[in-house]
Design a protein that fits this description.
By secondary structure, the protein is of the alpha+beta class. 23% of the residues lie in helices and 45% in strands.
């Protein structure tokens, strides 16, 4: 009798499992892209400009932030804190931080930042090399290889098809961003809230105030204090 009960419970569990278990990687990517505004629309994105506020976990004082991403892998980030200013620039395999050459893990971290600005587009552009990591903690995980030393894994919520988290890996280090406050801009879905961690330690919370898609192909002026 006990075996019958266990078998029945297992059968019910399988029936009740989320549909994402049975969906192919193509189906999952397709559902995500539909929710985020469509493949065609994202392929037309050439620049993304974001402005907002950064609340660091390990220092006092919030910073006024601007980001300017340009396809395929250019990014300029400026954060103006009450007592100083930080500028990070990455262009492919080259990067600077406050006008000083960035190398090693520092450069890789900046490359990950650039990649995260257009995660839906990466799912399409890297489709042939995506690694389906299956289900973990209720999310469908997909690993996106960026280079021989860099990967970013996205955790997808099967209820909303939102990218709830990204985990960048480089040189044995993990850089995690949790996303929230999803809104549409010109029909495309963006997360206006981010919570970052490095090696499990909180780094900063970012609140986006405005996003401009395909604006002027030049970085925004310096953020005001």
């Amino acid at each position: 009798m006990r075996n019958i009960t266990i078998s029945s419970a297992l059968a019910l569990a399988l029936i009740a499992s989320p549909a994402i278990f049975a969906q192919s990687l193509d189906d999952v990517v397709g559902n995500v892209m539909k929710e985020y505004g469509g493949v065609t629309a994202w392929q037309k994105v050439s620049t993304i400009r974001e402005s907002g506020k950064v609340a660091p976990a390990m220092r006092k004082g919030d910073g006024a932030m601007t980001r300017f991403w340009q396809k395929p892998d250019k990014l300029r980030i400026e954060i103006v804190y009450p007592d100083n200013r930080e500028v990070r620039v990455v262009d492919g395999d080259h990067g600077t931080r406050n006008d000083k050459e960035a190398t090693g893990p520092g450069l890789d971290a900046m490359k990950l930042q650039a990649a995260r600005l257009a995660l839906p587009l990466l799912l399409v552009e890297k489709r042939a090399s995506l690694n389906d990591a299956g289900m973990r903690e209720g999310f469908r995980a997909i690993e996106i290889p960026l280079s021989a030393s860099l990967t970013v894994t996205v955790d997808i919520d099967p209820k909303t098809w939102h990218i709830a988290r990204s985990t960048g890996k480089t040189g044995g280090m993990d850089f995690v961003v949790d996303y929230n406050d999803f809104r549409r801009v010109d029909g495309l879905l963006f997360a206006f809230g981010e919570s970052g961690m490095a090696q499990g330690t909180p780094t900063a919370k970012t609140t986006i105030d405005a996003i401009v898609i395909n604006g002027p192909a030049t970085p925004p002026p310096p953020a005001a204090k």
